[in-house]
Write a structure and sequence with these properties.
30% strand, 205 residues, four-stranded antiparallel sheet, alpha+beta
Length: 205
Amino acid sequence: MKVLPVGEDALLVEVASGEEAQALHAELLRRRSEGSLSAREIVPAARTVLLDGLDSPARLAAELTAAELPPVPPRGREAVEIPVRYDGPDLADVAAHWGVPEGEVARIHAETEFRVAFCGFAPGFGYLTGLPPRYDVPRRATPRTAVPAGSVALAGPYTGVYPRSSPGGWQLIGTTDAVLWDHARVPAALLSPGTRVRFVPEAGP
């Protein structure tokens, strides 16, 4: 674990893997909830956690540097289920990369339980982990100028759902009508770090 100062009241904690970042994020949230940690923001990423708005960043940096990483927390609360039609334009390419029929891509993906590792890129976009490393896929050589909202996509070790239309280079394997970001909903984001997610196949139109 490496702890770096960021400005006057923030720290960036670097760890070796996404699993360690998830575990550290969960532990820091637990500490803040019980009142032993004062932080305005605790933001996970692929292999880092940013803590902002700290009262004593130097003291916390020393404490974290000396501490052992916590284990990955047990899976809590029920999984969010996202209905999906496996009809994406890159489904055949992903199947070829995996060396399986297209229908097998859908089966493997739908039978996997995912966890939101971190959020970013666009409001409501979660980076979901859960697929074994052998199913990592490269980004498209040429990104699309517009990916439709609701596209279920793969890139590297992650699955994601585009909450709105935007450019993107991920491999599109399906579509969903689930609303990932809604200003009128509390919370606005359907997914947040640590959320368990399952994709539920539904028939096409």
